[in-house]
Amino acid sequence: MLPQLNNKAFIVKDYTTIFSLNSETVKKLLGELVSIYDGIFKKFSPTRGLKEYTTNFSHIGCITPTALNRHTQYMNIIGPRFLFYRIPKLNSEDSKKGFEIAWQEGRKDNLKRIEKIVCDFINQIVNKLETEKILKLASAMKISKPN
């Protein structure tokens, strides 16, 4: 799957099930994700031999705080490769207002606008990855950055 993800965005709706596995399994997965994040992933299997992939893609994943908290210490050890955003808890007034907005007239149009905003954001991430890749290649070839 890694070659198919190259220069794309990978979105996981819910990591809670995976992060609920035993700690050793989660550590193995996080270690592999770190290698993938660093751009090169190598894995040896007795049946398939050595497999090596070079890839670059953005990755967005969601998880419940409870499932994440079990692995915070290990994630801190492997370094600053994760960006966390915790959605603040809504009070009842904000919750009511949110439902009114969500179900108001023109809901379909609002959903289309939100979809466009999210797609534009993801495209910006992918384009930034492409730009960074080109700059790295230019640097490796000792080509100066155009003005």
Structure description:
Helix content is 54%, strand content 14%. With 147 residues, the chain is an alpha+beta fold. The protein folds into 2 domains: 1-87, no CATH class; 91-147. The strands form 2 sheets. A two-stranded parallel sheet has the order 1-4. Strands 2-3 form a two-stranded antiparallel ribbon. Strand 2 and strand 3 form a beta hairpin.
**SS class:** alpha+beta
Q: Would you list the SSEs in sequence order as H and E?
A: HEHHEEEHHHH
Count of domain modules? 2
Basic shape: globular
Low confidence ranges: none
Task: Record keyword descriptors for this entry.
2 domains, two-stranded antiparallel ribbon, 7 helices, alpha+beta, 147 residues, 4 strands
Question: Concise description?
Answer:
With 147 residues, the chain is of the alpha+beta class. It folds into two domains: 1-87, no CATH class; 91-147.
Tell me the layout of helices and strands.
Layout: H1 2-5, E1 9-12, H2 16-19, H3 23-37, E2 40-45, E3 49-54, E4 58-61, H4 65-69, H5 72-78, H6 92-102, H7 107-140
Parallel strand pairs: 1-4
Antiparallel strand pairs: 2-3
